[in-house]
Amino acid sequence: MYVEWCLNSLLQNLANLWEQITQGLVPVTGYFDWVLAARLVLTLILCGLIGLERSGHESATGFRPHILVGLGACLMTMAGIYALPESSGMRDPLRVASYVVSGIGFLGAGAILRHGAIVQGVTTAASIWGCAGIGIAVGAGLGMQAVFFTGLVLFTLVVLEWLEERFTQRGREKHLNIHLKDANRAVGKVLTALSRLGVKVKKANVVPAEGETSLLMVELTQPMTALAMASLVKQLLFLKSIIRVDVGHLTTEQIKQMALEQESTEEDEKRYNEKLEQDTKALLEDLNIGDEEQDFHP
Asked: Is the pLDDT of residue 293 over 60?
């Protein structure tokens, strides 16, 4: 009985101590609000969906950065609206949110990259700015509007992108599958060759292929017409370290056929191939040093 009384007394004292500690921390931490916490979770979900879509395009500013931007905007908006209620009649509750909108612009600008005349990252910068808007809306209690806005953003990024590529890039290709003899030396030479030929590369990945060969999968920044791509393939095959080049869904035979259709007569075709061979040799001949001999067949 005495032991039980001691345990109950100890638990009561601990409970009183905990209550005193929590009451003392209230001026520092404030009270936990489940509604505001739920708004943060909703912001995480909505911004995460947009970031997940962007991660396939711009990995450095993809999934987590979008979430962090949205959560930060949501928290700052709630701080501006609900903090210091005793002075609510003397301030603008959305003033903090207005600074968030302008501040996110600097972060979005950091996602934009320029390579000569090519500009990348504008869509990702816009999606980051949109995630800040989602955070502000959810923080202000407009959760359903934020959900609807997220749906529109995903529709724009996924469906409209597909429609844009289908209607504006029809007959164009921007993916190359380059089969290499030796990836250790050939990858750098291929990328150098593309740069010399004035072709901008967006992504380049190397994967093992059959035997000792490797496959270099290249995505170009700008799509090229079928005829321009056929000429590019001819020039790339000048490199002795390249076994063959596949273009998107086109077969080697289709590429050769398009190249033949490029010339109206046999004489024009011969003259074109001679000039292409001369230009390619002047640009890329030094890249063949150290490789096995391989004839150039345009």
From this structure: no
| 2 in any annotated domain | no
- CA dist., res. 251 & res. 228, Å (int): 15
Based on the fold, state whether residues 46 and 89 are members of the same structural domain.
yes
Separation CA 93–CA 88 (nearest Å) = 7
Query: At 138, is the pLDDT very low, low, confident or very high (cuts 50, 70, 90)?
Result: very high
Tell how strand 118-120 and strand 201-208 pair up.
unpaired
Q: Which two tokens stand for residue 197?
A: 């030929």
| Angle, helices 266-284/226-236, rounded to nearest 10 degrees | 50
Report d(CA 14, CA 16) in Å as an integer.
5
pLDDT in tens, 147-182: 999 999 999 888 888 887 777 655 567 788 888 876
Instruction: State pLDDT tens for residues 198-257.
Output: 888 877 888 776 656 788 888 887 777 767 777 788 888 778 778 888 886 665 566 656
Claim to verify: residue 179 and residue 158 sit in the same structural domain: no
Inside any domain, residue 21: no
User: Does residue 5 belong to any structural domain of this protein?
Assistant: no
Which of 131, 146, 166 is where one domain is finished? 166
Bridge partners of 244, per DSSP, are 179
Residues 238-273 as b/e (b if ≥16 CB within 10 A, e otherwise) read: bbbbbbebbbeebeeeebeebbeeeeeeeeebeebb
Query: Do 224 and 154 fall into the same domain?
Result: no
Answer whether 157's CB lies under 8 Å from 122's CB. no
Q: Which domain, by its residues, includes 42?
A: 32-166
Report the C-alpha dihedral over residues 99, 93, 47, 147, rounded to 10 degrees: -140
Say how far apart CA 122 and CA 126 lie, in whole Å: 6
Distance CA 175, CA 249 (A): 9
Same structural domain, 145 and 185:
no
Q: Strand ranges (DSSP E) for the chain?
A: 113-115, 118-120, 172-180, 201-208, 214-225, 242-247
